[in-house]
Structure formats: structure tokens, C-alpha cells
Amino acid sequence: MLKKIRVYGAVLLAMILCFSLTGCGPGESKNEPQGQSNQPSTKTQVSEPAKEESLSDVLAKGQGLKSMSYEFILTTPQGTQTGKVWLDGNRLKTDSTIEGKRIVTFFDRTTNTVITYYPEQNQAVKLSAGTDSNEAPSPTDYTGNLNPNKVKVIRTEIYDGARCKVLEMIAPSSQGEKVLLWVREDLGLPVRVETTAASGEKTIMEYKNIYVGSLPADTFELPPGVQVTDLNSMMNKLPANLPNR
């Protein structure tokens, strides 16, 4: 799996929170006493704004999510990388383009194996997963263990069509990176993460088209007819003691 990506950034946006006013209009009463002026009422009814959810309640929505898919856009001073990720319990699938080549990976934590599929060649290789293979650029990387008492809610705004709480924090690395997170109130997941390094360099991770729920059964299956080379099997067949050259 992909190694957890650290991100850097700062941005300012604003949201106008409106509430509606309902006025009582003029009306005639058949039982109105004589001599009483039939003037419009000056009373107005003000609708109460929706109760603001606490940060703890919002973050709780993103805890324990086992099945989801999303697209990501990583922008760094070195360039931009895009891709899509599918998560379902112990299984992970990523589809991204690296240096102009499309690469699809399938990781199974139960067997600790990873299959790397190259669509252009219609070939794949299978290998035991490394120590970092259980990490992916997931939105929960940033909020899974976030302590609400150690972050600051600086505003609430609409971002990419969703109502978000904008959080400000210092990165756990203790190197002075300042982090801003846009956390969707309905999902409890960040859709934008900006971090600014002490040097001033900024990196932005965006999560789009987030879907939370069951995924199709064939999501983690290779297309039919793909030739898979099992590197583990090949290495097991090598002699135990190879001569040194």
C-alpha cells in the first residue's frame, strides 16, 4: 500500500450563514369587534438557526468506517499526483498514474500480499507486502486519532459543496508545520488538508467524490485473463545458498 502522505498548507475562505424570517401578514377577521383597526401585525417570527454540532460529534462520524472509496489530488512543489482508492476492511485497491504510467495495486492484509497490475501490459506481479503496505492516503489518516482539544475551529464554511469545519493545528512532527483541515460535518472526514512547512513550502491533499458504504464484490478482483507472476514462489525456488561472486 501507499505510504502515508504528509501534507502542508494554509488558505482563507468564508461562509455566510443565513436564517429565514417569516412575517405575519395582514388578515381580516369576521368576528373582529367594531371600531378595531385592521392593521397588519408588526410581530415577526424568527426561525432558530440549526444547532451547531461540536467538533467531537463531527469527528465521531468518521470513526470506524470500514468501507469507502474516494479520489485524491496531491499537489506539492514538485508536481501533482492523482488517483482513486477503494477500502473495504482488510482490502485496499489504488489506481493512480505515476510518471505517465497507470498502476493498480491490490493489497490484502489477511494474507499480507500485494498485487501490482499494469493495465497497458495486461500483466501483474504478486509479492509479500512490506511494513508500510498497510498505509494509504486515506482521509482517516488525519482525523482517526485527532484530539478535539488540541485543535482550533477557526470557521465553518461550504467547501466543494459540503459544509465543513476548518481546523487549525500544529503537525505532530513538531517541526513547526501548520496544518489546516476542512472536515465535512456530515461524514467527519477531511476533504482538504493544507500544511505549510517552516520553509514556507505548501502541500495540499484534496479528497473528492467520497463514497461511504458497501463496494461491489468484484472491486478487488483482477480483470479476466491477466497474467500474474508470483515473485514469492520464484524466490522460494532459488537455492538456499547461492555462491558469492
TrEMBL record:
Transmembrane parts of this sequence: none
Keywords: Signal
Record InterPro entries: LolA/LolB/LppX
Extent of the signal sequence: 1-23
Compositionally biased residues, Polar residues: 32-47
Region entry Disordered, spans: 27-57
Annotated protein name in UniProt: DUF4412 domain-containing protein
Organism from which the protein derives: Syntrophothermus lipocalidus (strain DSM 12680 / TGB-C1)
Species lineage: Bacteria, Bacillati, Bacillota, Clostridia, Eubacteriales
